[in-house]
Amino acid sequence: MSKLSAEAIEKRLLHFPDWDYYDDAIHAEFEFDNFKDCFSAMSRIAFECEALNHHPDWSNTYNVLTISLSTHSANGVTEKDFKLAEAIEAIVEPEDEDA
Ligand SMILES: C[C@H](O)[C@H](O)[C@H]1CNC2=NC(N)=NC(=O)C2=N1
């Protein structure tokens, strides 16, 4: 899968307001009510990652989940990252699905 240009990434990000592009990856931070809700979302995201065979660089501090997506094999951002970002959005912001 080929790496997208910075211009293509910025254009796509218009549909992903939670995400920013820098350092050859797209990044987002999600805040939950508590650790349980955060870890529950992480578990659900983990299953999507396995289904897509694409995995995030992420960290969790109590109720905050920080995610960076890039395609290691392409050394940058590809369509796979946007597919996973879409799946993550559907889990953490389900009310935005039809937006
Ligand atoms: C062998 C396996 O298909 C690869 O390691 C996959 C798995 N998950 C991956 N995840 C990410 N983010 N980038 C990759 O290049 C990648 N490659």
Please describe the structure with a list of short key phrases separated by commas or semicolons:
binds ligand H2B; 99 residues; alpha+beta; Pterin_deHydtase; lyase; 4-alpha-hydroxytetrahydrobiopterin dehydratase activity; PCD_sf; Putative pterin-4-alpha-carbinolamine dehydratase; 3 helices; four-stranded antiparallel beta sheet; Gyrase A, domain 2
Explained architecture:
This protein has 99 residues and is an alpha+beta fold. It has a single domain, classed as Gyrase A, domain 2 (2-Layer Sandwich). It contains 3 helices and 4 strands, in the order H-E-E-H-E-E-H. It has helices at residues 6-13, 35-52, 79-92; strands at 20-22, 25-31, 57-61, 64-69. The protein has a 4-stranded antiparallel beta sheet. Strand 3 (57-61) and strand 4 form a beta hairpin. Helix 2 (35-52) packs antiparallel against helix 3 (79-92). The chain is globular, with a radius of gyration of 13 Å. The structure holds the ligand C[C@H](O)[C@H](O)[C@H]1CNC2=NC(N)=NC(=O)C2=N1. The ligand C[C@H](O)[C@H](O)[C@H]1CNC2=NC(N)=NC(=O)C2=N1 binds next to loops. Keywords: Lyase. Belongs to the pterin-4-alpha-carbinolamine dehydratase family. This is Putative pterin-4-alpha-carbinolamine dehydratase. It comes from Mariniflexile jejuense. Its EC number is 4.2.1.96.
Distinct small molecules bound, one entry per kind = ligand H2B
Helix/strand structural class: alpha+beta
Please give the order of strands in the largest beta sheet.
1-2-4-3
Q: Please identify the top-level CATH class.
A: Alpha Beta
Write the H/E string, N to C: HEEHEEH
Straight-line distance between termini? 28 Å
- The CATH homologous superfamily is termed Transcriptional coactivator/pterin dehydratase
> Could you tell me the radius of gyration in angstroms?
13 Å
Give the rounded overall mean pLDDT: 95
Q: Extract low-pLDDT stretches.
A: none
Beta content: 15-25%
Approximately how much helix is present in the residues? 40-55%
Which overall shape is indicated by the principal axes computed on the Cα atoms?
globular
User: How many beta-strand elements?
Assistant: 4
Please give the largest β-sheet: 4 strands, antiparallel
Report the CATH architecture.
2-Layer Sandwich
